[in-house]
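REVIEWER CHECKLIST
Item 1: Sequence provided? yes
Item 2: Single chain? yes
Item 3: Sequence as submitted:
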Amino acid sequence: MSESKTWEYKVEDIFEDIPDDPENVLMNIPEEIRNEVGLNPGDPVRVFLGDQGTLIIEKISQEEYDSKTKE
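Item 4: Structure as written out by the authors:
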């Protein structure tokens, strides 16, 4: 099992309102997390809501993403 790392950020540092789309927000994943997880623009991810308001970000394969979006 891999060791997980924890970073703390303010909500306003991660989430940003989308102009003309009040129902959704943009999630900006900080560079240090992108580097740790090995994320590049366009990579599919899975985001879990953990206890105490934590977010768990996991990179998934394109095949897994495609199979989940076809359901």
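Item 5: Key structural point noted by reviewer: The mean pLDDT is 86.
Item 6: Recommendation: ____
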